[in-house]
Amino acid sequence: MKNKKFKNNTLALICARGGSKGLKGKNLITLKKKPLIYFAIEKIFKNELKYTCISSDDKKIIKTSERYGFKSFFIRPKELALSNVSKLEVWKHALEKAEIYYKKKFKFLLDVEVTNPLTTAKDLNSFLNKFEKVKNNHDGMFCARDSWKSPFFNILIKKNKKFYVANTLKKNITARQQAPKTYDHIAALYIFKTSYIRKTKQFLNGKLAIYKLPLLKSIDIDNKEDLELVKKIVKK
User: Fold this and answer.
1) Same domain, 111 and 215
2) Could you tell me which residue, 71 or 231, shows the higher pLDDT?
């Protein structure tokens, strides 16, 4: 992306708390001899985004990010580092702290996920370019792909030892092709207008665009199986 005005009004944020139930210490797990957080930092720096911020409650994570030149100017409060805290609250807190630190009001907030190292700096560049084109008619954009399974046909719930299709529609769907179009939300890249972030109570409430990722870039590392799969993809 060559639009310096857009970049100069964007805060690039990395959120990485210390606690993780699925995979302990996952933000610092090594991949290709680098901690996982390195790949998020690399994407941001290669796109020449100069206003950066790390939101973490973990001193080791903060020190690691600083070692790679990523700014740190606050520690995330414990009450915002719990597993049941929404990402939106973390975004709001980081935006407030960053605007005080930089003495600047940002127009856009970019969040780059640590747990998706398969996306690259080129992906981030394409992501930013697309949002720049649609930003006048949208509050934000996030990553997704066409659903692997349809909740209206393939996905089942179990109740009283019986299985039922997780279909919330009154219409009886007998073939996958009849099901409504659905998407898998991918935790990879997010960007929003800060005016939207400040006022919304749920990030999906607004007018949002999606940036489609292919299957092999849509894996979020949440457990050991995810990590092993990512390692195999990277190796191959």
Assistant:
1) yes
2) 231
Co-location of 177 and 197 in the same domain = no
Residue 127 CA to residue 212 CA, distance in Å, equals 9
3-state secondary structure at position 52: strand
Say yes or no: 54 and 132 in one domain. yes
Cα–Cα distances in angstroms (integers) from residue 47 to residues 42, 126, 127, 181, 187, in the given order = 9, 10, 11, 33, 19
Q: What is the mean pLDDT of the chain?
A: 92
CATH code for position 99: 3.90.550.10
Task: Identify whether residues 175 and 71 lie together within a single domain.
Answer: no
- Count of structural domains within the chain: 2
Domain of 176, in residue numbers: 148-181
pLDDT, position 167: 67
pLDDT digits 0-9 by tens, 100-132: 999 999 999 999 999 999 999 999 999 999 999
Alpha-carbon distance values, 81 to 75, 84, 134, 184, 203 (Å): 10, 8, 32, 25, 18
H helices present in the chain, as ranges:
4-8, 36-46, 59-67, 87-102, 121-134, 194-199, 224-235
Give the tens place of pLDDT for each residue, 137-196: 999 999 999 988 877 777 788 888 888 777 666 667 666 667 778 899 999 999 999 999
